[in-house]
Design brief:
about 180 residues, alpha+beta, Arc Repressor Mutant, subunit A, Nonspecific Lipid-transfer Protein, Chain A, 2 domains, five-stranded mixed beta sheet, two-stranded antiparallel sheet, globular
């Protein structure tokens, strides 16, 4: 599903997809139109964070890692060695129920298929809404772990570092629930 959406964005002139110069895979760069669209999307995200109720229909867990790589990755905090993180989404079935975050040479990409090599971490996302709330800055990573929304399996050092690879998002204050809009799925 992600690769289809990326191809659609390429056809729309929002992203440019190029083969990686140093090996398999592709790089995805926003075009000028994509950079300008990202400003609109961030405004919509701020509005949604304040006014819309986050429901499971709106919280596809694969969006969070994609958002890291596309917008919120703190490349200065990425490990310099190759790191492969598998994301498992037990609430989904079929395509999209698993994905990988591949970090190499200070950059990262999302992979729909196993890119080869040993997995350093496995992140099991049992509660997509809590995972999205963490991504939006509304929930602390430690609280998501303690509550069982997310489970990280693997070596302790990269497991502790994982949430720091994303730039911190300041949470938006939500109004009382009575004033929140319900966005159709």
């Amino acid at each position: 599903m992600l690769s289809k959406r990326l191809r659609d964005l390429e056809r729309a002139g929002v992203v440019e997809i190029r083969p990686k110069a140093d090996g398999p895979g592709s790089t995805y760069e926003p075009t000028q139109a994509g950079r300008e669209l990202s400003e609109v999307m961030l405004a919509l995200q701020r509005w949604g964070s304040q006014w819309a109720e986050l429901t499971p229909e709106h919280a596809h867990p694969g969006v969070v890692p994609w958002g890291w790589v596309s917008c919120h990755l703190d490349r200065g905090r990425l490990p310099r060695r190759r790191v492969l993180v598998r994301f498992d989404y037990p609430t989904l079935s079929g395509p999209g129920s698993r994905g990988w975050l591949l970090i190499e040479r200070g950059d990262a990409e999302i992979c729909e298929k196993h890119p080869g090599g040993e997995e350093d971490l496995v992140v099991v996302v049992s509660d997509p809404v809590a995972f999205a709330r963490w991504d939006l800055g509304e929930l602390e990573w430690s609280d998501a772990l303690r509550g069982g929304a997310i489970e990280v399996q693997g070596a302790p050092a990269p497991a502790r570092a994982l949430p720091t690879w994303k730039r911190r998002v300041e949470p938006v204050r939500r109004p009382p629930a009575a004033r929140q809009a319900t966005i159709p799925a």
